[in-house]
Amino acid sequence: MSKGRIEAFSDGVIAIIITIMVLELRPPDGTTLESLRPLVPTFLSYLLSFALLGTYWNNHHHLLQAAKVIDARVLWANLDLLFWLSLFPFGTAWVGRSDFAPMPVAVYGGLLLVAALAYYLLVRMLIAAHGQPAALAEAVGRDVKGKVSPVLFAVAIPIAVVAPAVSMVVYAGVVLLWLVPDRRMERVIRG
Where exactly are the structural domains of the chain? Predict the structure, then answer.
């Protein structure tokens, strides 16, 4: 399979996921700014999920641009990632509708954790693909962000049971961690 095909499919799935999430945003019945207040949790959960999906989309794009070989293991690892990402609308809606209740925030964290692990697996499968240039492994390097993110999600899940707001801050912190650009991948793409 060509890289273009896996990229196009993944882009399409992520676009559909975002569309499903935005369709959960319903306007209030009232006409005042006060009528927006009950929608704040829904909007904040959407904002966080959109940022997370954007982070995955951006890094997925750079990763595939740097890769030269796609094999069956990469295809399956990519589908695994897309499966977990496709559950984001469910977790996002539950967190928003529950007003950040402990169990929905913990389940949402579980979804974030398995998606992070799936992304990590995809990176490893791409690096291990027979014929992949060594430049990809060099660009990924120690993959500190890829290792720290699942740990932060895993730590935040049990915290959600007693302090869901703290867990949501940790989830948002992971997004901020990924906003710091890593120029190594771009150098490999240009190189």
Answer: 3-190
